[in-house]
Queue: 3 jobs
Job 1
Amino acid sequence: MRIMIVGAGMVGYHLSEKLSGEGQEVVLIDQDDNKLRRIERDLNVLPVLGSGASARVLEEAGIDKTDLFIAVTDSDEVNLISCIISKQYNVKTRIARVRNEDFYAQGTAQAERALGIDLLISPDLAITEEIMRLITMSQAFEVAEFARGRIELLGYNAQAGQPCVGKSLQDLRDLQGIYDFVIVAISRNNKTIIPRGKDRIEVGDKVYLVMRKKDVPPVENLLFNAASHAPKNAFIVGGGTIGYLVARQMEQKKINVRLVEQNSKRCEFLAEQLEHTVVLNSNGLEAHDLLDEGIDQADLVISVTNSDTTNILSSLLAKHHGAKKCITHITNPGFIPMLGKLGIDVPLSPRQVAANMILRFVRGGGKIVNITTLQGSDAEVIEMKIPNNDKFADLPLKYLEFPMGAIIGAIMRGGEIIIPTGDTLLQPNDNLVVFFTKDALQAVENLFGE
């Protein structure tokens, strides 16, 4: 497939890295020559200098031979114009990132139809959806859904005193009883481990599990002596688009919300639009103001200002005073690996969230049904279909020559969800949820090649 990406920022780079790494032919267009030269050294892409809103530049880049067009510059106008131009060359699929919320006033589907674009991505809407997915799982720092929500991949921090700490995977298999789960990975000291039976869970590990959604409560209790629940009291620091959208959806869930915003005019707008949220005119770093409002009793603090510094400091302040969990908006994903050491529970990069939505759309419909890149990790999870090939019929999983760096977490067969063991028999047309490190995707795809 020939893919043209307009915009060599963080989203464009992330997409170029993923797609070129899968053997796709990637053309990358940007107006910054130095940025293109750096990326050309790192990745196997064809760099083109110029504006994506120029028909001449697109023609020189080979738009007439392009299957997929993705516009992810920081300019809505460039993204939309370049997509509209690409339509004249019969490009099959067009994707644009758009920040202006006016495009979504009548709904995303209507905006896509009106503009003739297959997928519109709003970073603000994407991050709002991710936050709302995370709030119901108060004990987890990572949440991903598969099989239309019936399978969960969840990430947990292993802490002293929890039942799973010090136990090997074999010990935990003996404990699990009727509740099936697979520990698909352990992240330790920024290294991802695909564990085997003798590997033990240590304090400080990030533990990733796959399980049926209905089994989450008993498995959480069994392994972590904990129970996830929706927050009763939440603070939102930052009353921009994300803060406003999250507060509005939390109101619908009957969550008590206090929203902190520094701009007094914006506070007036928020107070008018939100029915039950308490709007506070403050910068989110005034400890006395926040303590007076009960931030020490908060179940959840969400920091979503436009400043990484404010988001990090307000989260640390909240945790210091007793807030149970923090979700922190981080524009620069380079900060993410060190934030866990500072005590920040869930760092969210809008660029990575937006890139993941694009990758899911691009890869959907074929052998790969769904894919999720985990925040702050070199690992991914895919939902993929086994080809209709007799060599997979009644094949025990333990005899499958599965690549190093990958593990099957669940199998979907018709309406049945199977959490597998080595004796589980595969069948053609099964859907698999596979966890893998970044170097193993090609080997997994090759294994299940037609």
Job 2
Amino acid sequence: MPRSLPQKIADAARLLLLSAEDRAYLRLIRESGAFDRAYYLEANPKLHRLFRLFPERHYLREGEAMGLCPNPTFSPYAYLAQNDDLAAKGIRPFRHWIERGQAEGRKTLADLRPAPVPALPRLDAPVPPERAAPVAVALHLYYPDLWPEFHERLAAQSFDFDLFVTLTGPAALADGPAEAIRAAWPAAGVWTLPNRGRDILPFAHLAQSGLLRPYAAVCKLHGKRSPHRRDGDAWRTALADGVLGPPGPTAARLRTFLDRADAGLWMADGQLYRGNDWWGMNRKIAKGVLSRIGIDPAASLLRFPAGSVYWVKPAILDRLCALELTTADFEPEVGLVDGTMAHALERSVGLLVADAGLEMIETRNLDTPLAGGHSGTDRR
């Protein structure tokens, strides 16, 4: 969401006018040599040009609270998560690590890399393929308390669909969230998966299990909060409104999307991000995994659906399945906001669409239906 001029002025003032405590922290960062300027700028390519001149200041005023990493081996979120005696004290994690943590041998991101690889469970189809609806909705929830919000949105729709829900995270280990979902949607498939790969691996696992094969299109929803963004909740709502909004317009747009032979992915307005700067430090990761199916990320300009919420057709799911993703492809979850396999694959979706010879379109492109088109998505 674009920042207004007063907001930009306030941002600049926060950057330039530091308190005595922040000035001391800034000196500590510079003297430690632990802040990797080149890494920080590469990992955050869309920083305002003023912030790019003073990346250390951006980190101490904004970046640390957002969970950004000051170097490749330190994550503020991971540091607090692995040192819970610090989390409740309001301690600045990078400052603590510079002053004491490294001498104490405290755990950082580098220490978290080796970890047991959890197995993915077998997913059995809740609905026989011959009884499948025309389309499906695949919802991933890390935050089960968002279920009522999505339940209301799903229940409002007028077209027929099958529902698949994947749960991860601490709350998902209890039976309550799954029971609440099954009570509201008895025919839904609901599974608790290991907390790997954010929303990407659960969706890939659904596809690789064959559960999405019967459908003409699948809506991928993600219960994201994006705590590193000021507008995290508003962004989630905007993403979902674009692809699963008011029932009448949504059903009409879905019919048009299915009828458009050139359309492979449909996302909310304003979510088609363009430009290779958006790769950040994810291109190398993407190159490794996409080489499995002969796609080179450097061969074309990056275009992708930000936020990972969209409708997608089978040709793209086929290419996702061909990657043969497993939990071993994804890092242990430490709350990073960039630079993981999940972030690399989020950006790679546009390349899968292009490889299929199809287009990514936004909601506004679907408000002029094709003449005579009808795809039979109304509720039975």
Job 3
Amino acid sequence: MSIDLHSDWGTGGFDRAPVATAVGPFAGRAMLKTWWDVRGDGDILLLEGPDALLPMVQSRNTISLLGEADLFDYHSPLGEGVGKLVATWAAALPAGINLDFDSLPAEAADVLMAGLTEAGLAPVAAVHQSAAVLDLPGDFEIYLASLDKKQRHETRRKGRRFSEMLGAPRLVREHGPAAVSRFAAMHRLATGDKGTFMDPTMEALFGGLHAEAGAVIDFLYGDGDESVAAAFGFEDASAYYLYNSAYAPAASAASPGIVLVSELIRQTAEAARDRFDFLKGDEVYKYRLGAVARPLWRITAGPGADSQ
């Protein structure tokens, strides 16, 4: 089998469909390259065959999938021939190389496991995180009716309280560097790790994702001119992906965070998208709002596999 290991971002391999379905922008060239330009470190390894592509990066003796796990909720190879491509490549790996492939939906994990096993590497697979995914019925009121009585009451109660305190909630989609700066500034108002997350490098990454990878920014308003919460996400034909969010602490009594999510779900349903993806994280509120866990697999192989 003919394979090529290169670093050409212009390759047509990125035009192939991801092996795993419903992974949003995370396996695409635009998001991967934006991340690499801002935060990339190591050597790019784009493993390509006639009908498949596996984007990777090598740092010292470890090869991982391109895109750090804390920022890429999904990883997936692309194309139909991934198993054979990986088997051919992995069989010729030099001794002492560790493979560490994270954030894999089951479809992607199965194909990679098969290829690595065929190469004789004895890979180890384990669930290491989950995404939280909400299937939508196409109508927001039908969605609300599907929640258990307590959660439905709580969601409506917080919506009413928001309206009483700040006015009827409304989402406004805003664009450009000013929108990114406003989102980042609101994010930095949070306490603890969340507040320190949005450093200048991270703000640059979010700006790149907005400008180059299609990220959208929705601000939540009441009747006033000042936004009280904001969401940074992605959309495709069938889903909205909630990548990050923030709210103004001064408005916390009005529950702007949960109202923001509720309005985003409403907006997604009204746009006839059938899925709201909360992405990684085990926060309880996601499951109270009807999401179910989508397990994500980590595959390790090589000398350090058993200890990882």
